[in-house]
Amino acid sequence: MSETVRNTAHALPKAWPFEEAAKVARRLAESGKGTALFETGYGPSGLPHIGTFGEVARTTWVRNAFTALTGLPSRLIAFSDDMDGLRKVPDNVPNKDLLAQHLGKPLTRIPDPFGTHDSFGAHNNARLRAFLDGFGFEYEFASSTDYYAAGRFDAALVRILECYDEVMAVILPTLGPDRRATYSPILPIHPKTGIVMQVPMEGRDPAAGTVIWRDPDTGERFETSVKGGACKLQWKADWAMRWYALGVDYEMSGKDLIDSVRLSGRICRILGAPPPEGFTYELFLDEHAQKISKSKGNGLSVDEWLRYAPPESLAQFMYNQPQRAKRLYFDVIPRAVDEYIANVDRARSQAAPEQQANPAWHIHGGHLPNHAGSPLSFGMLLNLASVVNADTPDILWGFIRRYIPTASAESEPFLARLVDHAIVYYQDFVRPAKRFRDPDATERAALEDLAGALAGLEPGSDAETIQNLVYEVGKRHPLPDLRAWFSCLYQVLLGQQEGPRFGGFVALYGIPETIALIRSALDRQANAAA
Prior knowledge:
The protein starts with a helix and ends with a helix. The strands form five sheets. The chain has a three-stranded parallel beta sheet with strand order 1-2-3. Strands 5-6-7 form a three-stranded antiparallel beta sheet, with no helix packed on it. A two-stranded antiparallel ribbon has the order 4-8. A hairpin with a 6-residue loop joins strand 6 and strand 7. Helix 7 packs across helix 10, helix 17 crosses helix 19 and helix 21 packs across helix 23. The protein is elongated, with a radius of gyration of 29 Å. The chain is mostly helical. The protein folds into four domains: 225 residues, 3-Layer(aba) Sandwich (Rossmann fold), CATH 3.40.50.620; 83 residues, no CATH class; 61 residues; 89 residues, Arc Repressor Mutant, subunit A.
């Protein structure tokens, strides 16, 4: 194993998942383990969201890179903290009064407000599994309730009792005075009310595996076993205990948990094991550079993204620079789609070592599908939809087949998906934002020149020929620069600030149609002046 790591280190692909995978490989080489355990965590008091997708996708990419780097087996556990007590009633559920009667109880001991499962925790766990399965992730689902009840954490919980004072010495300095007075890392489940109790421990017996505590309301004293699901741990101690008990080798987390990772790592070492290798990813921002908050409802949901673009584009967005804060709003979708398409196109001509540095390799688990990618960019389809005011896919397919006669939904399935998404994105975002402007005198002369030059081209001229012609026309006129010339084309002809490579657009839309588009824009200005 160590020899494998040494031999591959100098040739490590320039991709962050491989850099992370190398850390796991070195860890296993030092420990002598033969299988790597990756973990992601989920709080099932709410439904899966775009951050859930990002964490599982990124961990999966590291896991795949680990396999490619070492050839060793690995596992990914998606762990649900479903034994947590319900602190407040979520806003997005029915039957809120039903949930309000069970505040403080473990999520798996609360009725399902949706009426479809045995408990609220079971309902949200099912949603998580369906969510992950829908994206084709390979994982093992793990329930905190099941693990505690089955005794899988019993030995580790007794170890917490043995190291209780040391664990408290780590945690207490991070708490305020009021919280310090009542804090215990161990939370007994009240045998009468079923509530997860946050009370100080009056006594503990590591040999018997029990704790003694008192109900603050009734004064009744209880001795409770820490085994078999009669107790659980506060989440930072729980996180550390889980790493220790399961032997987790890798878990990533958001920037907001940096201090928690550090504290849980210290507890894990106290218990007697090194904490897992980790990776801190940045959080998402909305279009105004404000942190995305589920309570505020700013930013994008997974369902919203998938309404406007395929999941491969969401994966591309998640892959890019995970340690940089990124704005997550609707305008980033077309760029992510086209970046994915470009990466797929590049991957087709790359040898295996180069492919492993390509995001498309990671997005597709090292196996690029035959029908991945598209001969047309999403931006091109959006601009075509904009010009022809497309309301149905058939309108776009008419132009596509003229440009690529052999293209069909069967031969180009990813393109077919893009066409459907382009119609929806155009109708919701492009059409409402279209703002045409009139050309100035210099631009008008250049547009007249372009219409005449296009009329002189051979029918069927390719995109590169047309692009070169557009450049030449722009250079013939006293415009500030070529960027100003293309801005003129987008703003005057398409009613938007940016656009695709113009030669490709003309080849797709048609030379006669583009000439008519220019004439229409010039006539619009003349009619307005009259």
